What we know:
Shape: elongated
Distance between the termini: 16 Å
Order of helices and strands: HHHHHHHHHH
Largest sheet: none
Helix content: over 70%
Number of strands: 0
Strand content: under 5%
Radius of gyration: 23 Å
Amino acid sequence: xxxxxxxxNRKELIKMLEAQRYLYSKAKRIFNTRISVSLTIAIIGxxxxxxxxxxxVFVAAISIAYILLDIxxxxxxxxxxxxxxxxxxxxxxxxxxxxxxxxxxxGKKPEMELIYENSSKFIANKxxxxxxxxxxxxxxxxxxxxxxxxxxxxxxxxxxxxxxxKNFIRLLYLLxxxxxxxxxxxxxxxxxxxxxxxxxxxxxxxxFKILLKQINSQEAxxxxxxxxxxxxxxxxxxxxxxxxSKSDLKNNIRIIQDEIYRHRKFCFxxxxxxxxxxxxxxxxxxVYNADIHVAKLSKVQILE
Length: 304
């Protein structure tokens, strides 16, 4: 009754997935660099201060310089890559689900040259496998009309994101606690005076800034994404009850798609290893939930 699972593997759509995957990975690499340099300063700084008193000014200067570099350059580079990726992913969705492009919310469509360039970079990396991008949505949704199938696809995307972020935020809290305890323990063991302790802990500042910003961002993202998921589930229930016409569904689906785009554009990208680690478990749960909804929606006749 719809062509979503067939069309999702079309060459031009796979190119979009390759491009957005590369750009999201680029944003993640920039974030990893930010974290790595912050970790290096946070670990080596206290050691230098504890063993070489004359390095206090040097460590403080390096910490301040990197904070400025992070705010002025690195953070913006990460954000720009994520925005390009979100636009390309949005183009994939609206093409696959046959939705209109919302210029007001999203702006100009990404150029084909941008897609080709980043798709080529994805393919050039031998570690990447384009076959992993195929068959994302389960075959079961073929039984549904296009609008109902789109609802299930949107719900699957949102559920997957929420589940990953909940696992990621647990890791962030653990890292924050570990490095806070590490800094305090070094100060106590070395019996540092108050001034030295402040300088020592200052070397952790950018790391704490990034981790706390990530935690706050992830918590806000989860709250917002769960709100989208709740709205989708209510919409699915209303559709099952026969309370939605085709025009109502189309309008609601477009509104939800706008929210999904905003989420992708502004939220922090999750590490690739996190996706890979939970992929098999999440896929099984996603297919199971999709099958349940398909079984119910396949019996529904949507009003004109």
